[in-house]
Known about the structure:
The protein has three domains: 3-76, Winged helix-like DNA-binding domain superfamily/Winged helix DNA-binding domain (Arc Repressor Mutant, subunit A), CATH 1.10.10.10; 81-192 and 364-400, ATPase, nucleotide binding domain (Nucleotidyltransferase, domain 5); 205-320 and 328-359, Nucleotidyltransferase, domain 5, CATH 3.30.420.40. It has 14 helices and 16 strands. With 404 residues, the chain is α/β, with parallel strands linked by helices. A hairpin with a 4-residue loop joins strand 5 (92-99) and strand 6 (104-111). Pfam families: MarR_2, ROK. One of its GO terms (molecular function) is DNA-binding transcription factor activity.
Amino acid sequence: MSASNGAAARGDLVPSAILGLLGTRGPASRADIARTLEVSPATVTQATKSLLRRGLVAELDHVPSHGGRPARLIGLVSDAGGALGVKVTADHVAVVDVELDGTVRDSASHPFDPESPTALDRLGDILGAAMDDRGGRHLLGVGVGIPGAVDSQAVGIVSAPTLGWNEAHVGPILRSTLGVPVLVENDVNTLAVAERLYGIGQSYSSYLVVTIGRGIGCGIVVDGAVYRGAGGGAGEIGHIPITVDGPLCGCGSYGCLEAHIGEAGLVRMALERGVIGPRGTSRGLLSAAEDGNPAAREIYREAGELLGRGLAGVVHTVDPETIMILGEGIDAWEYWEPGFETAFRRHLIPSRRGLTYVVEPWAEDKWALGAAALVFASPFDATGASGDQGRLVRERLHASQGEA
């Protein structure tokens, strides 16, 4: 595939990736940006014209070149605006205040009960307080990451079994409460965007982001753009059917991958095998494994085997360049890995057995940073995914630069 075709498929993430690159690595020439992001120089030139026009980047000093005209560096204008990023979980919400260059100015965690009748009002209050704490600094919008299926970023109707939400009107309620643009997305997809803009994904065009913890999730990036599927539910690998008569999953089906190796499944197995008592938790299971308990370590080994087998099927379907594995369950990865490595390699076809994967430490702030990146990507949305909310973000960007 040619670079130009790849650039077309990358859609709205290319200009945002340029912002992330300049924010995390400092000023760079157009040629360096093109090489790093693996897009054509023409794509970078076109994207930087828009960024320059909007006042988000500026041309700096010339640098020596190897023949030809000296290259000019492009630098980020850091005061163009910021965003709030929110990661919603079953017992708390994490909120970060992020500048356009990816700098996290502030982060906080708040207790949260998603099954409360007033849960969305509580979420609005948390975000309203975070907005007030920003003072007079310009806010472009709010990005929200949810562990479930989202109809679209621009609307934000959510079905999330782990939260007890079915067609919850997250986007409409928060927009009414906050009075700013609000974009809503599956939380693993936001993490995939964060990787593309600020992390390992800068070096790859197609990759998977796999999370282990309460559930099992997957963000899919193809040709630099997050693949959402027809209804926003792509990547729900936790609901791949593994056994016919397996345990009940939170989605209502039996024998899903998540029902076996999500946090609740691991705790259930630990209880059945006498590793923990009736009130035991995943922390107790991990402690037992760290103490050398063979039954505890076998539970993790079996979980790794099931994950490796399931993920091999996803690799054959998507053909990524690499995989990133992380999440709140990653603290136990050394006990997952023996089963995972063996099963993953064994079930891959020979041409794919050399595929690399990277295990990253758990960092909840990155998930919320990914949610904020939804806001930063929306002004350059060529496919219309951000809808009317993208238009509102663009208006706020113009206002931040003193434009009409």
